[in-house]
Amino acid sequence: MEMPGDREGLAALLMRVRSEDFVAGRLMEAVEAIPRRLFVPDGVPDPYGEHSFPLPCGQTMPSARTAVRLAAALRIQPEHRVLEIGTGSGYVTALLARLAVQVVTLERYRTLSTAASERVRSCSLGNVTFVQDDGRAGYAEAAPFDRIVVHGSFEELPKAFVEQMASGAMLVAAIGAGDGVQQIVRHQKQGSRFELTPLFPVRFKPLDAGKASVL
């Protein structure tokens, strides 16, 4: 599965996120344990580089560093239940599954969801539920969640997500106009109010509506 240079690329990523993003502990162990090569398109020379990759269905996979930073922003504990909106390749899903007791991940494209499920399970992770849905209203059927991550942007956080967060829960999403640069913001629920922490800039697309009927 590994290609020449993968170990060096992983080591460089771990050094960057440790020194620049202050990532440590269980998440670092998860990054080392999950083979990113399994999740990137064939022929990619450096799966750990500072660039995104195209996925089927016109979707995009974030860079390894962005993926790790998103997972780090959630501050996941072993007892947490996590909702992920936008399964994509399944790489972030696998990181979350290494950290949490349960992950529910939504993807509007069956093609992506099926492939991601196979990859995640090949990593001996059986605590993930895959659902085909657009995720624009969260997933009330399994709420409340301790942690929520959205691989997409909102101009403002929809009320539906607020209602699906447990007490003390955190949600990480890109906030801003869909046609420009947004800010990844961590929303932490404190009783009836939210504590907002801007983290880093990204360019994420707004979530598309509806399940994909063909792909």
Automatic annotation (TrEMBL):
Q: Would you tell me the Gene Ontology cellular component terms?
A: cytoplasm
Name the CDD domains on file: AdoMet_MTases (cd02440)
> Which terms are listed as keywords in the entry?
Methyltransferase, Transferase
Q: Name one GO biological process term.
A: methylation
Give the Pfam families listed for this entry: PCMT
Please give the name of this protein: Protein-L-isoaspartate O-methyltransferase
**UniProt GO MF annotations:** protein-L-isoaspartate (D-aspartate) O-methyltransferase activity
Source organism: Aureimonas flava
Instruction: Spell out the family assignment given in the record's similarity comment.
Output: Belongs to the methyltransferase superfamily. L-isoaspartyl/D-aspartyl protein methyltransferase family.
